[in-house]
Amino acid sequence: MLSAELSIILLNIAIILVAYLSVYPTLAGNDFNKIAFYDIFTSAITLAIVGYHYWGSDYQFNLLVTEVNWFWYTLAVYTAVEIPIMLWYFKKHRVRVRKEPE
C-alpha cells in the first residue's frame, strides 16, 4: 500500500502530465491566459480529490522541514511538480507571458 504522501505525489504527476501533454496543447496552445485559466481547474481537481479523502482528518504530511495539513502539502507538491513541466511546455510551444506589440 502506498503512503499518503506518495499517493498525492503520484496523483499530482498524473494530473499534470494529462494537462500538459493532452489538454493544454489541444485547448490552450501557446496562449498564456488560457493555460492559466485551465490550470486553475486542474489544480482545483487535485485539491478536491485529496480534500475528499483527508478533509477533517488530523493527518499531518511531512514536507521535509515541517508538518502540514493535506491542503498545503498538495499545493506545495503540485507546484514543485508543475514548474519544470510548465517551463518545458512554455519553451516547446513558445508561450509568451505578455503580449508582443502588434
From TrEMBL:
Membrane-spanning ranges: 6-23, 35-55, 70-90
Keywords: Membrane, Transmembrane, Transmembrane helix
Superkingdom classification of source: Bacteria
Keyword Membrane: yes
Name of this protein: DUF2834 domain-containing protein
